[in-house]
Amino acid sequence: MFLATQNVQNSNPIDILENIFGQKAFEWERRGLNEIVIEVSGKWQDMLLFFAWEERLKCLHMSCLIDIENKLCDKNKMFELLALVNENLWLGHFSYWTEHDMPIFKHSIIVDGNDAAFEEKLAQMVDIALTECEQAYPVFQAVLVQNMDPKRVLFASTTLLQ
Hints:
By secondary structure, the chain is α+β, with helices and mostly antiparallel strands. The chain has helices spanning 13-23, 75-86, 118-144, 150-161, and strands at 27-32, 35-40, 47-54, 59-65, 93-97, 102-110. A hairpin with a 4-residue loop joins strand 3 (47-54) and strand 4 (59-65). The radius of gyration is 17 Å and the shape is elongated.
């Protein structure tokens, strides 16, 4: 598991994330009471994990930015790729961050203050995001930078993984 669990109950999940990532010497920035950004080294490139806590909904949202320079003029290819990639996901989904013109992985969990396994769920959430982004990076790179056909790239990547 990517993160070690802690025994912290009934806290703001952002405080827990700050504590966990601070102990592991990651680059992070607290952007307010309910937001934190953490930089994580990946196989292909560094990734940014954005966490936001919505107190009213008791929901922790995470986004993982895939930093790829998008050279596509045809946005239809991007949206076709997102639909195809998302068909195979059980948890979370890929979306398109129009403000930065990049793909992004998103996932949220409802936080129950009495959940003793919250830290484990948090670790799983991060592991899922990093794993999905690492697997999808070459596919997004081929389509967004090399302008390849999304179906061909996905077919080739699934064939190589089997």
